Amino acid sequence: MAKVIARAVPDGSLLAQFGGPADYRDCFSRDVPGEVSLPDFIERFYRSAAFRPERVVLGLIGRGASDADARAVARGEADGIAVWKVVERRDGEALLESKGTGTASWFAVEPLDGGTRLLFGSWVGSIGESGWKAMLRPHVWYSRFLLAGVAGG
Fold first, then answer.
1. Architecture of domain 5-148
2. pTM above 0.70, yes or no
3. How far apart are CA 89 and CA 74, in angstroms?
4. Cα 35 from chain centroid?
């Protein structure tokens, strides 16, 4: 599995600015060789083998996430995929919220010398009241697994 590192949520990022100050946020990074654009990262994430089981479940509940859906949201041609809607997109980052679950996913890319840093993070609102607190350990493992499963440059 690729090396995935827990990091502080970057100040000024869409993730840092979303929700309230007491909400839960996390951030993980993975450095990959070559240049990877934000659209490439998002598309690779939703099309990865690591995400495939979640795509199957989403399909079973009528919230499919096809390769075409992944490509469209990644390129800004659609405002969402499956249960996630784009909240905001900036150069190098995008935030997608899952309405009704009190969660959001954040994607960002940072250029490195000879490579790209892929950043993936989550937001959970009212974590103490939502029941998500009991899911934090599996959530962190799954976030690392998903980011490790994204194909590099």
1. 2-Layer Sandwich (3.30)
2. yes
3. 10
4. 19
Distance CA 87, CA 109 (A): 17
Whether 90 has a pLDDT exceeding 80, the answer reads yes
**What interhelical angle do 38-47 and 67-74 show, nearest 10?**
160
Q: How far apart are CA 152 and CA 148, in angstroms?
A: 9
Mean pLDDT of the chain: 90
What is the C-alpha to C-alpha distance for residues 134 and 80, in angstroms, rounded to an integer?
28
Query: Hey, where are the domains in the chain?
Result: 5-148
Strands (E) located in 34-128: 80-81, 84-90, 93-98, 103-112, 115-124
Q: CB neighbours of 39 closer than 8 A, spacing ≥ 6?
A: 74, 75, 76
**Measured distance CA(86)–CA(66) in Å, rounded:** 17
Inform me whether the pLDDT recorded for 153 exceeds 60: no
